[in-house]
Amino acid sequence: MPAARDDTDLVKAARLYFQDGLSQHEVATALGTSRSNVSRMLASARERGIVQIRICDPAGRDNQLEEQLAERFGLAEVRVATFEPGQPAPAKVGQLGSAWLLDTLRDGQTVALSWGTALQQLVWATTTDRPRHVELVQLVGGLSPVAQATTGQELVRELAARLGATYRYLHAPALLQSPAARAALESERSAADALRAARRADIALVGIGAVGVGSSRYVVEALGLTAAEQAEFEAAGPVGDVCARYYTLDARLVLRPLPAVPPGVDEAPLSVAEAVLDRTASLQPASWQAEVCAAAKRPLRTGEVIDGIGGGTVYGVIDSAAAARAEGLVPIGLLSGAMVLRDVPQGAVLTTDDVRIDATATIAVLRKLQDRLIAAELGATPAAA
Fold it and tell me: What confidence score (pLDDT) does residue 302 get?
């Protein structure tokens, strides 16, 4: 059985190899032993704690946690900052976010920003050696109590200056007192253009607020809730907000009681995401009442291909679901790319006898599935496909 290695010899071998940079062969020559023995000595030095290796990642990222988050939530990319006590965590988050943004940006893109301290740190950390030909837009309007440096307007302007990019403001308050006020604002051309640009953004940079802290607290105060509404709001369990929309710990959107309405990106995409990812519904139908069908904008000729919603061939009309099923009316969402089978006069509502729909298209397959599920739930007859 070999004799236990002397710690003094292990320290000598470790210093020569790790501090002086000698090769294992050179260490063996200096100590008068073999190279294989030096390898074993270095391994023993690590096992006994004589040698302790510390890896300092200059990027400051927690790769293990990033991988866990990506796997848990199916994310394509994740950045998690590492920091030690006394280090400014927000600044590190901003540096990682800025590095990701600069690496991701492509000319011609639109970037939308909300507000908050984390985004402020990202903006402050951003520098570039060449102009980026992108447009920056706001996701959230203004709120007077929010610190000027963290507002959407200031962040959009500052980031545009740092990138050499163009920008546009959303000239609107963060909260409006009624859906009617929101509709009136969104009918204004400047606001509508800004919101349209935000909806088609290629990249959205949003902060996640904590209820009771910073801008998230100011939004709640600006809602002007009554005591009963405040109690109902708190009972829903909101823990944070994104763009002035509040969420619970299990990512449910808190819809009530919110008497003030934030203009901006619609809740519909958020509700769809919740339904797909979390199997939860913001709204549920009580009955199958209506169907959005399609009427010809102009005379349609046999062999024409319909261009769908917003095109020049059809427009939407609402009919009762029972009538639509009985008459074989085609839902307008299924008509993009459908071929006209016979001449259809202007204003006539299209039926399944008028067009041929690609039954293998994703939208058609999903519509059939929806019809079956709703029919089973409500006891209705599925629409003809």
Answer: 95
Q: What was the pLDDT predicted at 275?
A: 65
CA 238 – CA 230 distance, rounded (Å): 11
CA distance 119 to 122: 5
Report whether 5 contacts 33 (CB < 8 A). no
DSSP-assigned states of every residue in 198-240: HHT-SEEE---EETTSHHHHHHHHHTT--HHHHHHHHHT-EEE
What sign has the CA pseudo-torsion 108, 109, 110, 114?
negative
pLDDT along the chain (385 residues), means of 10: 65 90 89 88 88 73 89 87 78 90 93 89 92 91 67 89 92 76 78 85 89 81 83 88 84 66 55 61 69 91 87 87 88 91 92 92 87 68 49
Rounded to 10 degrees, what is the CA torsion of 336, 339, 341, 343? 70
pLDDT score of 254: 80
Residue 276's alpha-carbon distances to 176, 252, 271, 285, 361, in angstroms, are: 29, 12, 9, 17, 20
Cα separation, 253 vs 262, in Å, equals 14
358-to-23, 292, 351 alpha-carbon distances in Å: 69, 19, 15
Phi, psi of 76 (to 5 degrees): -75, -40
DSSP state letter for 43:
H
Do residues 176 and 143 make contact, with C-beta atoms less than 8 angstroms apart?
no
Residue 376: CB partners within 8 Å, gap ≥ 6?
A: none
The Cα–Cα gap between 372 and 368 comes to: 6
Q: Is 48 helix (H, G, I), strand (E, B) or coil?
A: coil
What pTM does this model have?
0.56
